[in-house]
Give the backbone structure.
Amino acid sequence: MTKQETFQLEFENHVTEGLKAFPKFLSSKYIYDDRGDELFQQIMALPEYYLTEAEYNIIDTHKDNLRKVFNTHGAFDLIELGAGDGKKTKVLLKELVTNKVDFTYIPIDISQHAIDDLTNSLTTLLPDLEVQGEQGTYFKVLERLATYNKRPKVIIVLGSNIGNLDHPQAIDFLIKIKDVMSDQDFLFMGFDQKKDPLTIQHAYADSQGVTQEFNRNLLHRINKEMDGDFPVNNFEHWESYDPETGTAKSYLIATEPCVVEIKRLQLKTTFKKWETIHCEISQKYDDDTVEWLANKSGLEIEKIYEDHQKLFKDYLFKIKK
Ligand code: AVI
């Protein structure tokens, strides 16, 4: 079975499980086909979605310090999980290349297309940069790199991607990273912070309805790839941020009763009016919670970086002594 077929089967099993459950759920992990990627790019450019700008500010403000810290043990591999279009990373790469730091940039992404686009744009922007893109799932590639390469590693994960995992999943994710780290290695990771609940509410319920289209892409994909007949426009996006737990939850809600048939899965499911599908969590953090996660995962916080509006933080971790 090819990787693509395995992923498709996983997606189909997930849809069967999620739509038979009560309450119903579908994971945001499956939003990201080409259209989903494009909608996420649009979200990142929204004025309400402060996360991207805030992390850009952190990297831009602290690039001098980051260069020195990352270079603590001399030549290193800079490994990025989830390469994306690299807008924020490019600031860091430029700083390192301009100052003639000896390092190799290794972006890892599930999509070969994303790696190729990034590598091409970097060849033009920074011709002296050594890029070695790796296509695959994060942990398979990380394990492979850890066995054949003994250079110090700096692993970076930008954009609060960890927030789309619940705490047990987040700990699992951090442990898997920690397992390929040695004493000299660093992990640099973004965690969106708890803040005025309205700021978070607006970031995930934007006035232009892009986030609604982003979530609805799950239903479009099911219709297209599994021969489904979701009346997509009858499902509205709802966002609910709980300031106590720091969890923003997004739902699609049926505004009319309907029966949905998904032929490929031989599944028929009914929706009552106002019935929900839970699609995503976007967890918000504070230092205590990040410290707790780190501790549970065998990591410790070495340094914390914050943007000038105090919205977002990147944490530098090492293996716990
Ligand atoms: C990818 N991830 C970190 C985004 C977030 O902020 O949770 C996905 C997203 N969902 C709605 N807007 C953005």
Summary: The longest strand covers residues 235-242. The chain has a mean pLDDT of 95. The CA atoms of residues 190 and 314 lie 4 Å apart.
